[in-house]
Amino acid sequence: MEPVLAVEQLETEFVTNGGVFKAVDGVSFHVHQGETLGVVGESGCGKSVTSLSIMGLLPKKIGRVKSGRIQFHGSDLLDVPEKQMRSIRGNRIAMIFQEPMTSLNPVFRIGDQLAEAIQLHMKLKRKEAMRHAVEMLRKVGIPHPESVAQEYPHQLSGGMRQRVMIAMAMSCNPEVLIADEPTTALDVTIQAQILDLMRQLQEEEKTSILLITHDLGVVAEMCHRVVVMYAGQVVEEADVDTLFESPQHPYTQGLLSSLPQLAGEQDRLESIPGTVPSPLNMPPGCRFAPRCKYRVEACEQVQPGLTDMGGGHRCRCLLVEKGVAR
Amino acid sequence: MKASTSPSAVVAAASEPSMLQEAWFALRQWSKLFLRNKLAALGLFLIVLWTLFAVAAPLVAPYAPDATQLEAKLQGPSGAHWFGTDQFGRDIFSRVIYAARISIWTGLIAVGISFFIGVPLGGIAAYYGGWIGNLIMRVMDIFLAFPSLILAMAIAAAMGPGLISAMMAVGIVGIPEFARLMYSQTIYLKEREFVEASRSIGVKDSAILVRHIFPNALAPLLVRITLGMGFSILTAASLSFLGLGVRPPLAEWGAMISEGREYIITGEWWLVTFPGLAIATTILGFNLFGDGLRDVLDPRLRTSRK
Q1: Does the domain at residues B50-301 carry the CATH identifier 3.90.480.10?
Q2: How many residue pairs bridge chain A and chain B with CB atoms within 8 Å of each other?
Q3: What sequence ranges are listed for the domain ABC transporter (chain A) (predicted)?
Q4: Helix (H/G/I), strand (E/B), else coil: A130
Q5: What pLDDT score was predicted for residue B127?
Q6: Contact flag A103-B19 (C-beta cutoff 8 Å)
Q7: I need a surface site. Which of B71, B100, B126, B278 has the fewest CB within 10 A?
Q8: ipTM
């Protein structure tokens, strides 16, 4: 089956006073229809920059896509002119942001903001757009949608606002939904509700979701497949069961072993020693080598490639590549 | 909610009472805050008073502003002439009242010019940045480098003395203030998530600037408008005093002071005192009101709901 969205060898760089650095370095992945792909990694690994590259929303003048392709229905989004891109944004590819508290314009009523998004892409009159907006609010489980539509963002709770953002993102039936840490700013109980809502909408609309997160719990619950990113590169890609049962990359293993376990005794949570390398000063070999406990000499000189291990499981590690047992 | 309305009307208007209540609540809270600030209330009173005088000048003024009575020239304040008469026997009280019309019009038009040119310039400069933003803001800096009265004089003199050129000169001098304010507001607002969110749903840059950034910048701009009124009226009066504003015999506070100043030495103080007081109270009114407005619109000073 043809993927809905395919990112190929994406390289995005930022120009700063300190020099030019690559935030995303040769990232490839794809999402099928109705599938949820998790993009996991710690802060600064390039996962948000990847999503902004897809949307064409990189900060002007500072950020730019250097090479690669973003295939969406047979056309490369990087070649699409800005005007056409605007008709894709929000309409066919929509995005949910991390901060529901500040993602809504404080001076407009909820209904008006939703109707604006709807009117942009659907040829609807104001009244019809308003009706559609209320319908969307009902769909995302907001009680009394007619009166909530008349309220201002500050009158809603964080969970309600994230529901509004989801309603806005889903209002034009997008084929791809990019959710950038959609639950990070919410309470745990609300998180579960929001995730349930996203899953339910996905089943109804057959939307593909790109779920960007650092929360492996969310990944286990939501995703079909996972891409693990480290320092701007994909280090491991697998379906969710394989990833949790037999992670191959030492970084993925480290991430998983740093999760608290319910079963069995555990004194301390494990952590990965060291920090992410500065993008201005990347190690010449494997980018994870300085923090890796299995490191051998070759790791510090040779950049490992992605090794295909069958069944869509790929891993960027020299030891895996050479078939060395650890 | 009203009890007498039919059920279907209640459904149709279900959201309206809450909106009205909301607006009423906001209004009450504002007015409470405002009246707590007695000086701001005084400012509002002065503004309203002078506006009423300006609107109803023919009703308030006992004489026509340019009716001369040479037999009654240079008379001190009396029952017939509250503020006395000038060297042509014109009633100073009537002239002061009529002059309020010119001053308030000047303020409105000058601030309008500053606002409608300055705000778009500042918004564009901040939103698009780059060389165009730099160019706009550096030109604004050049304008700001001149003392405002000197610059207004230069512009008014270049355009030729007259009421219209005075208004335009004062308006142009005020542009950089509005541009700078809008610039700083836009710089702050354009990085906010809701702006990025509206870009992510495909809103055009120009629509973001007009529909999303401008309304959020309105509160400080409103304060600036009020303070700008006071500044504009004072600057326009100064231009008229210097002979670059209205031409005689039109009644204008600055011009009246200018015409009456030589009589101070001979003891006819009322010729300059009353127009001077008019200027002082009007500007005091706008400045006190603007300060009060700033306090009210500053969310940090707003009280929590009870």
Answers
A1: no
A2: 71
A3: 5-256
A4: helix
A5: 92
A6: no
A7: B71
A8: 0.75
